[in-house]
Amino acid sequence: MKKRPIATILIAAWLVLIAIFMLLARRFDLEIFFVLWLIGILVIVELIETRQVRPPWLQYVKYLIAAGIILFGAIVARKVLEILAR
Question: Which of 22, 47, 53, 75 lies in the 20 to 30 Å Cα band around 36?
Fold first, then answer.
């Protein structure tokens, strides 16, 4: 089996697992969901990436990760400002 379908299945399974646990806890927070998604995609891409050959689709995933890290920084900055405003 190729790596691209495996990565897609793993990311989808990770998101479903996160959603199930959040629903069971009766607390669905979009920021926590996003951070856990980002952690999952970073781990999956790191495990799937080969050093010798880089498929073209992996470059697009890295752009998605970069955008996620920027959004993560914005979330952290907003939380810090909330704490400082108290």
Answer: 53
